[in-house]
Amino acid sequence: MAQTNPKPWGETTVVGKPIPRVDAYERLSGAAIYPLDVLLPDMLHAATLRCPHAHALVKKVDLTKALQMPGVRAVLSDADREARLPWYSGPGGKPVSRLFDPHCRHEGEEVAVVAAESPQQAWDAVRAIQVEYEKLPFVTNMEDALKPGAPAVQEGGNRAATPSVYTRGDVAKGFAEGDVVLEETYRTSCEIHTTMEVHGSVAQWDGDRLTVWDTSQGPFPVQSSLASLLNMPLSKVRVISHYMGGGFGSKLGLSRYTVIAALLARKTARPVKLFLTREETFLCVGNRPAHSMTLKAGVKKDGTLTALQLTGTGEVGAYPGGSSVGGQIRELYKCPNVRVEETSVLVNAGQSRPMRAPGFPQCSWALEQMMDALAEKIGMDPVDLRVRNYTSVNQAQKDIPYTSAGLRECLTEGAKTFGWKEARARPKGTGSVVRGVGVAGGMWGSAGGPPATAIVSLFADGSALLNMGAADIGTGTKTVMAMVVAEELGIPLDRIRIEWADTGTTQYTGASGGSKTVPSDSPAVRAAALEVKSKVLEMAAQQLKVPVEGLTLKNGEIFTPGGSQKVAIADLASLRGQRSVVGVGTRAPNPTDKVARPFAAHFAEVEVNKRTGEVRVLRMVAAQDSGRVLNLLTYRNQVIGGLTMGIGFAMTEQRVMDPQTGKMANANWHDYKIPTAKDIPADLVVVPVDLHDTEWNITGTKGIGEPATIPAAAAIANAFYNATGVRIRSAPITPSSVISSLAQGKTQR
Amino acid sequence: MGKPTVEEQSRSALSRRRFFNSVAVGATEAAILTAPGRAGAQLAPPAPADAESVGIVLNVNGRTHSLRVEPRWTLLQVLRERLGLTGTKPGCERGECGACTVLIDGVARYSCLTLAVEAAGAQITTLEGLMRGEELGPVQQAFAEEDAFQCGYCTPGQIMNAEGLLRKTPAPTLEQIREGMSGNLCRCGTYAHIFRAVERASQLRKAGR
Q1: Is A341 among the residues known to form the active site?
Q2: pTM, two decimal places
Q3: B126 and B192, same domain (yes or no)
Q4: Which position among A133, A249, A676, B195 has the lowest Cβ density within 10 Å, counted as fewest Cβ atoms?
Q5: Confidence band for A323, pLDDT divided at 50, 70 and 90
Q6: Are A598 and A443 in contact (CB under 8 A)?
Q7: Largest alpha-carbon pair distance within chain B?
Q8: Contacts of B43 in chain A (CB under 8 A)
Q9: Is A419 domain-assigned?
Q10: Which residue of A has its CA nearest to B16?
């Protein structure tokens, strides 16, 4: 067995370096096969008929015409017994809906699906299906949904659950102690993931074995849910997710299209490809729910926070989905008196799914604007106020210490790189175009953990195979894991092959989400490599007839202490005999007496045109504490990606529901604006606060994907205030909201 | 060593691409791994409805393909489903994202908004056509060096658009790059690295890579 507690890396030769991706060739040459690229012999193409109404009952589905269309091979609807599988759960977790449930609670719910020889024929047939709907009253925003007499999205009212309440200390006492107490309501809009590759699957049966190519962040969670739903053993369900075109949380688990593709493939005894259109992905594969957050905060003149109270409401769609935003209120800043009350509200719209740091950018939008307002009231620099309330313990978990907590370093080092003091002192401009700067702190709520298993095989020639289940969703997972193997075994990266993200051939791990892949899987990979290393050193000791203690492995050779004797891996007689040596690594449990969190501080400079309402983000600095950096190049990429997504959240992205029809009015990329090259400054600077978290796991890592986006939008909002003296409390900051806020601000003063 | 001709490049690129496709999808498709020059047309699902089909000639990456298509088929669909050139990606199929960008007579165009019949007779270049045998071409190489992608799904379109931009403007300024690349969405948000990659690609091209 490998050592359970190997020493942390000291100076490294591979780990931490800015190394281009090991799969750059596949992704840049066109060789990478994404699920949407899979072309199987004899494959059918499926298309879905979706409810066009916000809320309706399907009274009758007439398939006669569709079944006679050219190329049509099968149709599936609720009339098929095998398709009557439970799908969504309602409040309390009891099943409330089936795969093709006649009660459609939002636009875009599945009514029927067609498999045909070509995609065009499948769509022709979908258009030929005749459906009778009984339209029902609907509600599409949380304010209306909570009014008495509002149309019920589900039986029992529109609250998805009883409100959750967290308290510590006494907020009333805390507010009484504050020299300044402020209360404000902040809103964020519903954001859609809009991954570049649309959602979908290809399913193929061989007898009782099912293979699915799924555009997924987690082949193993998809496998287990699918096996359970179809009542099959795990060993008979193989899910492959080698390449995928973006997930951001919307591809973490099993989706309806995957089940439907599997059912159609069984029905037709042919492989079936079922992918959504771009428009469909806006309606029914998840979103970041809109939030309303009322935050009350007290602070003393010296900057000590005395109380925080958040009342939050999340608009989760037609079925309960996650909507908690309280994490940073409870944990980020030192505060003895805290109360968080949260409610989820059902509306006739697509269900929310986790989206890059679910809840945290919303919370940041409220908390970090509030921190700014408090700082101004007490005449303190916003960076100083945040540093003043730094804590090294987790207040929501009985004050157990963090293994590492770099928020202070993020704030101070970020401010230095940004030139914070100088930038704040600069004149903002006197004409219609003004500039301002803002800061926001942030944290993410987890840092990975078990289970994860990885296998490293070293071959007789000194090349290696890494076998791991993790999907590389574009974060560079394969690259950093290969670097860990290269570091331990002293072999070049180009001699390592990787098998990954296939439940049929690789080892179990969870989905690539929650910023957990590096801190969960890299320790398992290191443990596997260390086991190989210890076996190789043992072989060398026998061959050289020396004690194993003190032997070192470097550049494919084993050296005795002092270097008097050496032997190359390829010259080890016993390895040549057995041809390969295998190490199995598992992720050890997290410590129980401490906890880890990644931290961040973002800085932004914006330019506001007060006449047109246009806001440009001129530059940003992101200082991140995510533990040890494994690859500086892919790490930077994650951070600029997080900033870019934050700019979209702050400036342009919002689902617009048509109040007349209850349908989404902007279900396309023309009307739902994600950032383009023209919206993003080239000047995005990443400051890695490279604190090695040696107590959390054996690679010292905490995860970067989500903390890289959390405070970005709030930093922009604070920069807007700094430029204009007017607060915009609703995201996104659009030209029209700027114009009306500036006009209001003027009349108030 | 002389540069491979466009035709040589595309042959080797196409044959390799087809190989990966087959590996990905299982054993039975190995039958189509015949001579590289003939492999493409054999994928062929779906056969067009006879009454509506039109015979066209497509010049893709220096190779000529005679095939029958339905008039409504887009160039994107034909490249992917008939010729097996899946490097070109669908993103929205309505001209909003640029993932499907190819060069038509040297100009970057959305293949989802181009009917196959419209592209007949023109010189079409896809991502596969930028390869130099098994080596990445200069724009691809620059994207690797600057880590100008994450999931890689929009990347073929980004690279083709960058190629088109650099053919027109060999040494673009940052503002020209931002403007020129603004028709290609990247949800992973790698634009800042893409800007650097285009600058780097400009250098590599100038150095004769």
Answers
A1: no
A2: 0.94
A3: no
A4: A133
A5: confident
A6: yes
A7: 52
A8: 39
A9: yes
A10: A31
